[in-house]
Terpene synthase (Streptomyces hoynatensis), 323 residues
Amino acid sequence: MPIPGGPLHPRSAELEAQAYDWALRRGLVDAEGHRRLAASRVVTLATSYYLTARYREMAVLARWYVWLLTLDDWYDEAPPAGAGRGGAGAHRDAAGPGSAGRGPGSAGRGPGAAAFRAALAEDLWPATRARMSPAWRARFGRHLRECVAGYRWQAAVRTGRVPPPEPAEYIAWRRRSFGAYPIFDLIEFVERQEFGAPLRQDAAAAELVAAASDAMAWTNDLHSLERDLACGERGNLALVVAAATGGGRDEAAARVEEMIAERLRALLRARAALLPLGPQGRLLGDRVCAAVRGAWDWHRASARYRPGPRAPHAGGVVSRAAR
């Protein structure tokens, strides 16, 4: 891995515990789900790329990570009615700040669904939006709605409500559904500074976030491949590539490893291109790259991907992408 690792935030254990306990109190998980959350250590995805950030902002960020992960799992287990709609229309139906459409809170799937809407409206969004400018707020809301629309689309693929995607379609949806876009919008929240328009509109900044999202999402696909096969999931890049090429699963997984390595190289080029934009360009590049490294470490260590035999290429993606 070309990005060096580092220690977790010094209060990582506290940040983890408060986020997992919050999810239990809010009804996002039951007692068993709380145990699995704690075992997964998903909050270390956040604490891996902030070492000196203030606890208050980090606690909110940790809860965002938990909300996104548990909502993704909720769609996996109970896709709401209408999950088969893809494309731009699905964005209007997704849950998120400013959304009047149908999301988990109105999907009619019981109190677990309503809990996600309440946690968003009553806890996460009020704690986050106060210091956002209108433009920042709109950007974050759009990215969050697109992410949840991606969850709905993946559920539709899995249940056969939409046909299996071609690689280009899958890559476009997966880039948004992984959750990196709203999470990276929160770098400004944690750092207590809003990035200027020149940085946000720069092509290198856009490529930085896209490459990071791709690398993390595709790594996730390889680490979850065996689990996805066991539960009939069709939305996995290795399976999509195998279907498109007519090759075997191992051959497709090896190709995905190569694709991840390509995106890591693009990520580092984008970070270098941001340096002339000054301290904020450096900050964005450093935080995004550190998040990619944190995700790389998390996928290797998390109990979430160790319930059974390890995917054949789960280790290979690490070794090849590292070169």
Observations:
- The chain has 17 helices and no strands.
